């Protein structure tokens, strides 16, 4: 990309540009190196444990996919400019050089294609190093240097134009909502002021799995909850946190916050989408610099809460042999570990856990912007083999609950590619909605 | 002044001072860098997470132990062995008593010392040979890793050379290497002995706010 | 073979070459065979009783010295010396017993002292210590000669760039753990064995004694680790190291070291020989080493003497062969060390050096692929 930009310039000018690019990246690296990141860099003992947790290493055996190795350029910048006692190291000529643009470019696939920011490596790391969080910060430097992968850059442009990375317009949303109203026979209000809840959705759900909207309608009707969808801010995915652009991430969060506060809702429902939850619930307030006037609640959290309050009577439980995939950003990094399990216990009669279920579950391989990055397609598909091994280990499996739209499309694509169709992929909300006891719900 | 007197006297004190000040400076520097403020409403406590994160990472998770057992055996064998030797070997207890602290505690009997030394050596050798025989380890290891391992090994080895306690030269060699090790420590990755509290703690705090123990 | 015979075989050369020993031994012999029966009742109690009596008399009533009531009266009431009333050489003869010139009776279990000690010492000094160093040196010379003759054994087809898994990380760590401990033991052991002729003349007694003390401690410390390592290595490398008929071809063609193609499975016969040599001689070293580290476990001194001899010979053999192993595993053969550093080897290396193994692994993975696509 930057080679094209520099074409036609005099060599020394090109040289300057290159240095500027690297300097911009280094500047961001340092800006984002706080005490936490610094202690990660200081304490990594190069033990290599983290590789054993990363699905990209596990599925390829390529040592370059060792999590801590992915951080190297940022570590160098830190050692050179921030590390305590660096002057002493300097006296012995032991300071590393700053990363060059070429080096950064070479590392691009490690920073973007081979890290889903799933956080699994943190569990095995004896030093508890948060690789995922550090990669997120490293990407800020990459964006500043113009080194983000094209697929993601393309998606950000789409978001700027249409608010959605898949280009879902308000018109398209309206059409899908109308369709679901017909399907369920339940009216769904748009832009309703004073509703208690505002739902946001991921493009993938709106376009690929619109039955999710119908499921919301049925669940909230049963629980007697007033809810709405804003046509100004219906998009939950946040390409900003994926590509590593704080500015864009802030813009996207701000849009949702504005819409929610304009409608005066008390809760915003984050959908079955992993990173969207992290972006709005955990990163959002820090991005816009204040807490919201509303509570962010994840749909799984909400359904679980309603069910425990007795507002969602479960009728016939799903009798299929069902297992649960733990989306990283919702479970490991989101904190919703028990909620989906309680729901599945209630809604399914043959729920079995897969190997490593729960906090240490494996990533699907497509999170953290990887699935939006065509350059990573092959790697992503290989990484899914870890997931597939887990699924294949369950005898007689009939359905997998995947409570994240992104994971879900990764699952479906990968299974399609491998021509595997002996089990179905379903969302958690839909599963609960389909097992609602309609009679009791109507009375309640 | 004999060589032994130098390495047990002035050189030791210089090395010890560099060790203490260097380590404090480095840890202090990390603490001074602060943490980015996090204003998202928490569901759990960051402070409790800091502590829980620290404790949780002492225990390997079953999901990974099957793949990493060699490293666990080597790592725990070496580290536990080293601490026991450091604090409970009879000559160390005597040295600390006479030179530094002025009080002492029961030391290990000789047979126990030997046993612990075997474990510590086995652990350290396993850790290092793993470093040279695994592509991941070969890729991520740098000079500091090797120097740290070898210096520690030589300190331990020279300590065992001196086991007979009948030659000043051997005692002096051991002390000399100890001094070098102390001088090297604060500038190297050996500092992980202190910084692990911070890194585990920071992650523990981040996750703690989300109600998760990583 | 009984211990006695084994030991006799070891002692013969010592006796035959060492005339000084023969001379002293002869002069010490002679009376031995008859000594015990002739002197009869000279017992310890007897001597002690007389000593006691003598002391009493001295203190209480000089001149009235008499055996206390109940004390056995010895027949011999002559002057009492520090050794009872016998001459020094008589006592030595009785204690030592045996007959150093009678090869069938160089020692005997009921004797206080055995003459084999001196022979053992001479064997150690005159044979083992004198010649031991030449074996590893000779091995090195052979390796240099082979290097000049054959050079580095290259992968003829060049590297394919594709890799085949050969050793797991556990196998690699077990190998290097054993190798590391072995090298430490070899260095300290050689120092202990050869320090006297090699170091002492150069550095003098003080430095020598410091070095030996250090080497001794380290050697004792790492010994037990070697035993553990050996067991680990044995378990991890046994599969593939059992004899197979193809190995005959390998032996006949001298492993192809001097050219020609030889077939081999997962391990070739050279590797198998090394494996079993290491395991068996290593076991001997372990047992004899333990004997020396815990001498009180063995009532009979001769076991310890035998242990030192076997330990030294075994160690020299292993060290010499290990040099060959290290050579061929590193600079001697292109691509060999990959298996121990990365766990994988180049496809062409596998094809050229372990063709049967190569076919085995590639055909099964091929089958799996077929099955998967079917
Ligand atoms: C320090 C230098 C050494 C190097 C470079 C080295 C190299 C190697 C290599 C490359 C192999 C694998 C050969 C193959 O792929 O088939 C191997 C195997 C082996 N090594 Fe070493 N080695 C060294 C030291 C030692 C030592 C000191 C020992 C013994 C204590 C040892 C014992 C073994 C054994 C038992 C095997 C298994 C092969 C078999 O089963 O025949 N190695 N070594
Ligand atoms: S966060 Fe996940 S994808 Fe990224 S390095 Fe760690 S384990 Fe791999
Ligand atoms: S597991 Fe942790 S300490 Fe070990 S190499 Fe990976 S990041 Fe570093």
Features:
heterotrimer, A: about 450 residues, alpha/beta, Fumarate Reductase Iron-sulfur Protein, Chain B, domain 2, Glutathione S-transferase Yfyf (Class Pi), Chain A, domain 2, Rossmann fold, 3 domains, four-stranded parallel β-sheet, 23 helices, 8 strands, about 55% helix, globular, C: about 375 residues, mainly alpha, Fumarate Reductase Cytochrome B subunit, two-stranded antiparallel ribbon, 15 helices, about 65% helix, elongated, binds protoporphyrin IX containing FE, binds iron/sulfur cluster
Short description:
Chain A is of the alpha/beta class and 444 residues long. Chain A has helices spanning 2-6, 11-31, 35-43, 55-60, 67-70, 72-81, 86-91, 101-113, 120-124, 131-144, 150-162, 170-184, 203-208, 211-223, 239-243, 246-263, 274-288, 299-308, 338-347, 377-392, 405-417, 428-434, 438-443, and strands at residues 197-199, 227-229, 267-270, 295-298, 318-324, 348-351, 399-401, 424-426. In chain A, helix 2 (11-31) packs antiparallel against helix 10 (131-144), helix 8 packs across helix 10 and helix 16 packs across helix 17 (274-288).
Break the fold down into its secondary structure elements and pairings:
The complex is a heterotrimer of chains A (444), B (214) and C (374).
Chain A: H1 2-6, H2 11-31, H3 35-43, H4 55-60, H5 67-70, H6 72-81, H7 86-91, H8 101-113, H9 120-124, H10 131-144, H11 150-162, H12 170-184, E1 197-199, H13 203-208, H14 211-223, E2 227-229, H15 239-243, H16 246-263, E3 267-270, H17 274-288, E4 295-298, H18 299-308, E5 318-324, H19 338-347, E6 348-351, H20 377-392, E7 399-401, H21 405-417, E8 424-426, H22 428-434, H23 438-443
Parallel strand pairs in A: 1-2, 1-3, 3-4, 5-6, 5-7, 7-8
Chain B: H1 3-8, H2 10-32, H3 46-56, H4 62-88, H5 90-101, H6 110-132, H7 135-140, H8 143-161, H9 168-184, H10 192-209
Helix pairs in contact in B: 2-9, 3-10, 4-5, 4-6, 6-8, 8-9
Chain C: H1 3-17, H2 19-28, H3 32-39, H4 44-59, H5 88-96, H6 116-131, H7 134-150, E1 163-165, H8 169-198, H9 200-237, H10 246-252, H11 269-293, H12 301-329, H13 338-341, E2 344-346, H14 347-353, H15 355-373
Antiparallel strand pairs in C: 1-2
Helix pairs in contact in C: 1-6, 6-12, 7-12, 8-9, 9-11, 11-12, 14-15
Bound molecules: protoporphyrin IX containing FE and iron/sulfur cluster (2 copies).
